[in-house]
Specification:
Layout: H1 2-12, H2 14-35, H3 39-51, H4 58-74, H5 78-91, H6 104-113, E1 116-118, E2 124-126
Antiparallel strand pairs: 1-2
Helix pairs in contact: 1-2, 2-3, 2-4, 3-4, 4-5
Length: 150
């Protein structure tokens, strides 16, 4: 009986099976655009993924915000870079920009936006928050992405 249900789902909703794969391809394309310094294209394509609510894993959401934070920083849109960096830290507080071509200016700015301080030698430490109140990550999200995780 379960096999029949799975078969019907595959027949009726074939796009469902490839949704993750398409998002991963789109995010990989965005990563390649970053390497080519095509930041406006990254912003357009990744914002479309968010607007269409195609991001359905924590990893894809974190990657999307990482790419947007970097792209906005490199295009001198610091308020948007800060917004996406803070969202990134909600989904992945250990995120790094390793493997991406990031200017020194943006490395410093993004570290500041995420409330991380750079220490000489390239290591990072986390600042402690003065607030002792704990909130769930979902309550801190600035946009609709949290709806995917209800």
């Amino acid at each position: 009986m379960k096999h029949h249900l799975a078969l019907w789902i595959c027949i009726l909703y074939p796009g469902y099976l490839f949704a993750d794969q398409n998002v991963n391809v789109d995010l990989e394309n965005a990563k390649q655009m970053i390497q080519k310094k095509s930041y406006d294209n990254v912003i357009e394509s990744v914002n479309a993924l968010i607007e269409e609510m195609k991001l359905n894993t924590l990893e894809s959401i974190a990657d999307a915000h990482k790419y947007l934070a970097l792209s906005y920083c490199e295009t001198f849109e610091h308020s948007k870079a800060k917004e996406h960096m803070k969202t990134l830290t909600v989904f992945d507080d250990q995120a790094t920009f390793e493997g991406l071509d990031v200017s020194l200016r943006c490395r410093q700015d993004l570290a500041t936006f995420s409330e991380k301080e750079k220490i000489s030698g390239g290591s990072q430490t986390q600042k402690t928050s003065s607030s002792s109140t704990k909130t769930s990550p979902r309550s801190n999200l600035p946009h609709r992405a949290y709806l995917l995780h209800r």
